[in-house]
From TrEMBL:
Pfam families membership: ACAS_N, AMP-binding, AMP-binding_C
SUPFAM superfamilies recorded: Acetyl-CoA synthetase-like
GO MF entry, a single one: ATP binding
Lineage: Archaea, Methanobacteriati, Methanobacteriota, Stenosarchaea group, Halobacteria
Protein name in the entry: Acetate--CoA ligase
Origin species: Halobellus rarus
Family: Belongs to the ATP-dependent AMP-binding enzyme family.
Any one of the GO BP annotations: carbon fixation by 3-hydroxypropionate cycle
Source species, domain of life: Archaea
AMP-binding enzyme C-terminal domain residues: 546-624
Domain AMP-dependent synthetase/ligase as annotated: residue spans: 95-479
Gene that this sequence comes from: acs
NCBIfam families in the cross-refs: Ac_CoA_lig_AcsA, PRK00174.1
Chain residue ranges for the region called Disordered: 1-26
EC number: 6.2.1.1
Coiled coil location: none
Amino acid sequence: MPDGDGDGELEARLVEQETFEPPEEFVEQANVSDESIYEEFEADWPRSWTRAADLLDWETEYSQVLDESNGPFYEWFADGTLNASYNCVDRHVENGDKNRVAIKWEGEHGETRTYTYQDLYREVNEFAATLRDLGVEEDDVVTLYMPMVPELPIAMLACARIGAPHSVVFAGFSADALATRMNSADSRYLVTCDGYYRRGDPLDHLAKANEGLEGVDHGVDATVVVDRLGDDGFGHDLKGNQHDWDDLLDDHQGDRIDPVERDAEDMLFLMYTSGTTGEPKGVKHTTGGYLAYTTWTSHAVLDLKPEDTYWCSADIGWITGHSYIVYGPLSLGTTTVMYEGTPDYPERDRLWEIVEKYAVDVFYTAPTAIRAFMKWGSAYPKRHDLSSLRLLGTVGEPINPRAWKWYYKHIGDEACPIVDTWWQTETGGMMVTTLPGVGTMKPGSAGPPLPGIDAKVVDTAGEEVEAGRAGYLTVEKPWPGMLRTLYQNDERFVQEYWQEYSDPDADEWVYFPEDGAKIDDDGYITILGRVDDVLNVSGHRLGTMEIESAIVGVEGVAEAAVVGGEHEVKGEAVYAYVILEDGYEGTEEMREAIIEGVEDGIGPIARPEQVIFTPELPKTRSGKIMRRLLEEIANGEELGDTTTLRNPDIVTEIQGKVQR
Ligand code: WT7
């Protein structure tokens, strides 16, 4: 949002202020409040990571914290064994907290469901028994294509209990996207849902799941379908190997399954994410390192305590939900809130209504949401008592200072610290952010790297850049939550993340997250955004190649180039430049066919903001599309150098076609 917007909502005092200190009241109660933690981690690295591992219950203690012998294939706590479901469920039941609420779920229509840790224990066991009965064995990948229903975390934990890695596919993704991911993971089991509500209407999710199943190349052994819609459902008959969740659970009432002993390095789950190529990347996370890391960061950064009610408004279909709705909070024995619907249904105060209703202590959301709240105005949060809030967080994209300050004032009432957390699907958990009980906050800058995280901003040669200069973010030392590889593709793992700045001959490995950044004199890092062909639309990561291939799949399309243009609320929006085959015209029908092609190929989140038909794309003499130029055109910016173009005339023609 450009500066100047919503000025009436922030006094000059706040607009001017550049640094903020956490309130004393917060510091006094914080899980971590001593700045010596940074030195402690450094002095005793990597042994300092036992702090994270000590937050878990291990079945067998590990003898070595980090095995660096085969970089970048690092191993953490390698000879230790544990079970993630035991850590997130059983141990709280055993410790006398069986009646504490684990999950508070609220449906879009206001229905609620409450699961105590004992309830969770019962259902996770029963579903684990169900999965076994369906034939799922240890190390089989189970795909979970589910919206925000409590059965999703239950299924995740049931998988973890029997050592079957889950692969959650975001419910908003298309049938094609589901098929691609099931094929890639060779996954023979699917758990899905009949449908869910969006802005009052039931959506037919099972139709999409069934269509996806048709695209799976191998046999599918079983599908389990949760009945969310009841009488509002679409009346699908379940086919041969499709089963109703409730029926299966009835058959397994009272069953108990011992949590299997998993090696720390055993896969906990796979999560597909977008990269530069058209093929999504299957990021592999492990049982010990990932769980230790998400538990530790939930403790140190989110400041979660067992008695807290905590709400992360993300979808579990993304890594944020895995790490900070399910694994981190439940491992700490906290109450985690899940909400099915959108923030503006039935009205634009829905989230604040939920915060008030459950007296939420800690709230974690995305800058894109905050920009929307700002646009809607402060009258909506004002309707509610938000005084239960103690800490606020953001994730997913850079937050501009104005949105930060609006959040600080209108949601936090200037009494809650804000953590702006930089991390990625691949990092497993938060990497760069202030510790809320320790550090000064600087709106717009995520903060220093967390203790034990060796993040630097470097130039193309790998040398650290001066304060204030733009460079590339890198991470030199490994950390427990890091991805271990890309599923069945070690080579691509090395290529994607460890090529740029490493020196393999010297056995020196540097992780490259593909983000631009700058650093200030205090070591605070400001993230400038992706430097690869990946877009960040409303905090969601989308590969331009994936969108392009969906567009090129539409009849009549010859070539497409997709770039991100600035967007007030979404951060970035998809701009598609399209060349049609001879005999086709850039009509409204064609535009709709292209949008439909993208929705079918990926999902509505990738829907182009604008489709611009053009007879040619600006190309260099060597034939490369000049994407920078296409971005400048999308943003209505002054154009940079066009002298290297083979077809400079096309630029003005395209400029005239972009709607402003
Ligand atoms: C990309 C990772 C981390 C879970 C959600 C997204 C961007 C993430 C921030 C932040 C600026 C951020 C980066 C990163 N990003 N957090 N606090 N400030 N940018 O996970 O889909 O893997 O996307 O999101 O560009 O590389 P993801």
